[in-house]
Design brief:
Length: 89
């Protein structure tokens, strides 16, 4: 995957879920870069860029969502994470 400078053998060793998550994150990062460039170009060239900005926002998506009402410790999630890490957490 060019964005992460990964070789083909290391790419083929990835689990399929990891591959698609990396792919989605690369698209989000590109959309963020495009949003910055769009801001610069709209200042230089002028014109309405709202429709393209909305399209880039949709591509970027929600990266982190913080729910203030759900700030409790997830013990079962923590246990699952410990098991995935081999009990070393």
């Amino acid at each position: 995957m060019h964005h992460y400078a990964m070789s083909l053998p290391s790419l083929l060793d990835l689990p399929i879920y990891t591959f698609w998550e990396l792919s989605r994150n690369a698209e989000r990062q590109r959309a963020s870069e495009d949003m910055r460039m769009l801001g610069l170009l709209s200042q230089v060239i002028g014109g309405d860029t709202n429709s393209y900005a909305k399209e880039l926002e949709e591509k970027r998506g929600v990266i982190v969502r913080i729910d203030q009402d759900k700030s409790e410790f997830d013990k079962s999630g923590y246990q699952k994470l410990r098991m995935m890490m081999g009990g070393s957490v």
